[in-house]
Amino acid sequence: MPSAVFPGASQPESPAPLVERLGSPALPSPLQEVVDAPFARRGVRLFLKRDDLVHPEIAGNKWRKLVPSLAGLAPGQTLVTFGGAWSSHLRATAAAGRLLGVPTVGLVRGDELATRPLNPALERCHADGMRLHFVDRSRYRSKRDPETLRSLLREAGAVRPYLIPEGGSSPAAVRGCAELGRELRGRADVVALACGTGGTLAGLAAGLEPGSRALGIPVVKGGFLADEVRSLHSAAFGSAVGSWSLDERFHAGGYGRLPAALDRFALDFEDRHGLPVERLYVAKLLHALTRLAEEDAFPPGTRVAAVITGAPGPGLSSGLRTG
Ligand SMILES: Cc1ncc(COP(=O)(O)O)c(C=O)c1O
Q1: In testing the pocket of ligand 1, which one of 191, 200, 246, 282 has its CB within 8 Å of the most ligand atoms?
Q2: Which among 23, 28, 82, 174 could disulfide-bond with 203, CB atoms 3.0 to 4.6 Å apart, if both were Cys?
Q3: Using CA atoms, how far apart are residues 65 and 164, in angstroms rounded to an integer?
Q4: In a mutational test of the pocket of ligand 1, which residue from 195, 232, 248, 251 has the highest number of ligand atoms less than 8 Å from its CB?
């Protein structure tokens, strides 16, 4: 599916009335300094950018991505999006649909899920009124193909579909995430976050001031994200923008994997700092930054901001694969 069909590729954004209907976000999100031994020992300052506090149901990067993406939604349209069984983007879209009184359809990866009880994340989507349509993995992979997409939408009974891409990373969403970078101007030298589709990183890098850099920690294996970020930049801004890099070493086995040692690390961080640590993304980010500090990757005096892109979701840790 060409990115031009996604919201924000051409139309102007006017999210103000939407914001009122969704409830006011806590923006700019707080920036909290924490004293953490591996950083403090090296004279590195660690800050938490608490995007998890932005909205009770559409938290973190979900607010920054979803609200600008919804600006072109017309009366009578159905919000349609894509995600895996534990997708917090699906959950946020379902919640937005409920709050706006707009029907939602979720195309969910894995037709084997159709015959199983819903997991707590999908149960939440269902409770918010989202119609779930389970798609076999090979067709799900081909969802950008216009013919496949048309037939998926027909099967799902999506009337007048308004499409939001997987992970919510439309051009409008990427531009929305630039505000995250602008909020951090003058306050951090390195801003790090966990990446799934790369949309939040692409926007963040565009909003930071010259001299600061964005560091992405992919939670998925595959090494394809750099290309994704480059194409998101060209779709959203028409060219490459900002200073950014990826460190591909910290996916811990791939998406949805939570080795016992990483879970212990997250529990320990929660204990020390009172931060609820979301396990699919945020745990991998905080672990990566700790390792980087131990490798002396940040010179003394560096201000490192970790973007807390989400809060723990319903029943998640029980569904993650360990090892
Ligand atoms: C908590 C959390 N952090 C980070 C991300 C990654 O964002 P992106 O897909 O823009 O890379 C996601 C996925 O949307 C997420 O749910």
Answers
A1: 200
A2: 174
A3: 10
A4: 195
Looking from the CA of residue 198, the nearest atom of ligand 1 is 11
pLDDT digit string (tens) for 252-270?
Answer: 999 989 999 999 999 999 9
pTM listed for this prediction: 0.92
- Per-residue pLDDT tens for 4-56? 345 554 444 455 688 888 998 999 999 999 999 999 999 999 999 999 999 99
Cβ–Cβ < 8 Å for 246, 218: yes
> Which amino acid type is present at position 247?
D
Q: Going edge to edge, which strands form the sheet with 190-195?
A: 31-34, 45-49, 303-307, 190-195, 213-218, 244-246
Q: At what angle do helices 199-207 and 61-69 cross, to 10 degrees?
A: 90
Residue 175 vs residues 52, 132, 137: alpha-carbon distances, Å: 19, 29, 30
Local confidence band at 283 (pLDDT 50, 70, 90 cut-offs): very high
What are the E-state strand segments in 100-226?
A: 104-109, 130-135, 161-163, 190-195, 213-218
Task: State the distance from the centre of ligand 1 to the C-alpha of 125, rounded, in angstroms.
Answer: 18
- Please provide the average confidence, as pLDDT, over all residues in the chain: 92
